[in-house]
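Continued from yesterday's entry.
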Amino acid sequence: MSVKLPWKKDDDTHGDATTAPTAPSGHSDDLASRGSGGSGDARDAAGLPRGVTPKKGRPTPKRNDVERSAGTRRVHYDAPLTPKEARERRKAEKASMSKEEYKERKRRQREEAAAARRRANERMMAGDPNYLLPRDQGKEKLFVRNYVDSRRFAMNMFLPIALIVVLVMIVGMRAPEIANLVSLVMLFIIALLVVEGLFLGRKVNKLIDERFPDRAFGRWTIGFYAFTRATMIRRMRTPAPQVSIGDTV
């Protein structure tokens, strides 16, 4: 019995691999058919293998470009790992400053936070997609806003009429007859405004079906969004109107 030396193991393994028995032809064909079938089943509807994400179609923006567009620049910061460590850092930072320096630092932080909120509000009012609220995001919502802002509706007086109804209910304690008459008139006007809102919802949904076949929002969502936009006074709308009355959308 010969002893196998360490440097001869590779040769033996190689030799065993070359002399290994081969599988029957029928068994190999079965494995090949299974492999081909498995690869076909592992593909999704887009024709890509499972686990492969399709390309976005655009390059990923660099962090520097995103920060420049937002008007902020990040610096290296080691975040505390625990709340206790965060408290200790705040105490140490406060102890390293004089009372005047600490007050000045807090004042500067408040001013920077207020400036950031002001900038975000300005960009949101201007319709910047990066600053819009989730309720206002989407190309369909943009079209609805422009469509409503370019036209006059009786619904624009919804809030003033609602305020008049509240005042009439308050004053009605002294003049019930007048209050009842005014209330009936106001209710009739509000019913007309609701009917106008229903027609507006149908109109904008029809236009969105024509312009955006792959719409991302339901008909009720778009109709209610148009109704709430039209019931707001023009100066109080958020985002601010980007078109003038009479413009073609």
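--- second protein ---
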Amino acid sequence: MGSATREALTAVRDTLAQQGGAADLGVAEELFSLARLLGSSVQLRNAVADPSAEAAEKGALVERAFSGKVSAPALAVLSTAAQQRWSEPGDIIDGLEEAGVRAIAQSAPGSLSISDELFEVGRAVASDAQLELALRSKLADPAAKVGVVDRLLAGKVSGQTVAIVRQLVADPRGRGIRESLRWAQQTVADQKQAVLATVTSAQPLSAAQLDRLRGVLAKRYDKAIAFNTVVDPQLIGGLRVRVGDDVIDSSIATRLSDVRLQLA
């Protein structure tokens, strides 16, 4: 990610935060639609992401094109995005999509864990090769893939999670579905000012064990911790923890592997 895009994303996030509770699920779906629209129209995308054009001109263009067609919060985010400099024209699509995910995360009720639901969707996809193929196929019609999502998730997860997954399969932009789901999880956690940790253990961890681990990781990363928990008997014992690119592996299986390498 280029430095211009990082600065642009910060501006978009600030504008989204200013919308407060008005940036709800409906606004998120508008932002997703706008991202897909820019993705399908090279002319429009280049016009709003043109680095040689004045920011005010691009803001005015967006106002003329979308005023009255989308909600005020969605228009505010789009206008801010249009007035930024992006490292690549296509980065504005990523920015609007991210804003949509963040709008869902910031407006969701506290009792809803979108991150957990996305993780379970990812597990379902990973366990079914045919399902994964159906959702990642470049040849399949996007509407057909969205239909698969609706049939798979109807009544099983929240509308917020369905909206995110629908967007990810409708506009993959070269990403695999599992990669997209992990990105969405990390974005949701970041919006909640947390970091996402995937904890793999040989047996289910108790609430007390998770609380102790949460305390250790929160001290290390200076943020709240959101957990994914995976049970893998092949570890034999111990834990493997992944936080972003960091891996903390204290599993017995890894220790035994290290011993074998040393003996060899």
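The CA atoms of residues 214 and 220 lie 10 Å apart. The chain has a mean pLDDT of 91. Will compare against the first tomorrow.
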